[in-house]
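Fill in residues.
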């Protein structure tokens, strides 16, 4: 039997956990290739090397070319490749994540398809945002109303803190530059947050589309989880940059978000919170170390790769 061509992928247990990685890197207008176990990015200024297994998410913007070898390395390293639009504010697609286990995915699917458990998780998400408030017994309508009041208050207080004028959130998906500096900064900041949260969701093996509060979109769960941190990280960064904008506002926002995400330990918190929401407070590493396939049976999981011709019912 001929050996499988190509470089064999790394063992999952040998890779850095998502919580130990650099949050994200944004690349546009360059050529992305591979040099041994590093990703190279080349443009008119030169070439830089990036250790692939140390990055949680690589955001690929417009005007770049990426090689097949580079994509192989990113996939083998468990780095989430996310294709985004200009200034990083539009999501197009993503590559394979780090986890090889479907344990969290199955828990997510079970919880979201039952009305009682879905409401319970949604209440828990709002409780995480409300800092000490009891959401027990609240309807979704009550939760949305309280969240709306909270968001208005935070926007108003943050505007006063940074001395900027705030009226309302105005975002045109097809015209990023059409908004004022503050709305552009908010769009860029939330885009970075979504990219990192998306990388964690995919890395853990969860479905980005199975949301508890949001629904009907292929990133519903990403928006659910990102909302846990948006008012804490993205909003202050956006208002802070918009208060003293430079020549390249989106780039300034991305750098500020990178620092805020690192200082706020978002990867660790996001991983922990997703496990808690889905009812898994045990060993968070086991999802990455497992790379086995079972067969479903109502009696319990059965080993794959076995001939069951003599199985007696």
């Amino acid at each position: 039997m001929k050996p499988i061509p190509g470089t064999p992928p790394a063992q999952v247990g040998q890779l850095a956990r998502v919580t130990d990685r650099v949050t994200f890197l944004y690349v546009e207008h360059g050529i992305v290739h591979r040099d041994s176990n590093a990703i190279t990015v080349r443009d008119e200024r030169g070439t830089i090397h990036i250790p692939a297994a140390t990055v949680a998410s690589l955001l690929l913007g417009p005007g770049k070319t990426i090689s097949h070898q580079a994509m192989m390395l990113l996939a083998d390293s468990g780095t989430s490749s996310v294709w985004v639009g200009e200034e990083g504010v539009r999501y197009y697609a993503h590559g394979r994540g780090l986890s090889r286990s479907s344990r969290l995915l199955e828990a997510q699917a079970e919880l979201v398809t039952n009305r009682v458990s879905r409401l319970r998780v949604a209440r828990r998400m709002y409780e995480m945002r409300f800092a000490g408030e009891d959401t027990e017994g609240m309807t979704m309508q009550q939760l949305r109303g309280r969240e709306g009041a909270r968001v208005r208050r935070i926007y108003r207080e943050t505007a006063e803190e940074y001395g900027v004028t705030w009226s309302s959130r105005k975002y045109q998906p097809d015209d990023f530059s059409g908004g004022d500096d503050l709305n552009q900064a908010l769009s860029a900041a939330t885009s970075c947050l979504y990219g990192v949260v998306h990388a964690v969701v995919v890395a853990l093996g969860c479905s980005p589309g199975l949301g508890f509060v949001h629904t009907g979109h292929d990133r519903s769960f990403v928006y659910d989880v990102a909302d846990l941190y948006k008012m804490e990280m993205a909003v202050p960064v956006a208002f802070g940059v918009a208060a003293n904008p430079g020549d390249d506002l989106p780039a300034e926002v991305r750098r500020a978000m990178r620092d805020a995400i690192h200082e706020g330990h978002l990867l660790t918190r996001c991983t922990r919170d997703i496990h808690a929401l889905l009812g898994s407070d045990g060993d968070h590493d086991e999802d990455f170390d497992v790379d086995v396939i079972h067969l479903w049976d109502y009696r319990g999981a059965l080993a794959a790769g076995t001939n069951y011709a003599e199985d007696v019912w």
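DSSP finds ten helices and ten strands in the chain.
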